[in-house]
Amino acid sequence: MTLTNSEAYLLCIEPTCAKRYRIDERLYTCSLCGALLDVQYSFNLTSSATQTKNIFRDRRTIDSDLERSGVWRFRELLPFVNDFSKVVTLSEGNTPIYRAPRSAEYAGLKELRLKHQGLNPTGSFKDNGMTTGVTQALALGASAVACASTGNTSASMAAYAARAGLRAFVFIPADQIAYGKLSQSLEYGARVIEIEGNFDDAMRLVRELTQETDVYLLNSINPFRLEGQKAIIIEMMEQCEWEPPDWIVLPGGNLGNTSAFGKGLAELKELGFIDRMPRLAVIQAEGASPFYEMFRSSRESLSPVANPVTLATAIRIGDPVSWKKALRAINWTNGVVERVSEQEIADAKALIGADGIGCEPASAATLAGIKKLAQSGMIDKSDQVIGVLTGNLLKDPNYTIRYHTGELKLEEAGMQHQIEGNFANKPLRAAANKEEIRRVLEI
Question: Is 97-123+223-418 CATH 3.30.465.10?
Answer without folding.
Answer: no
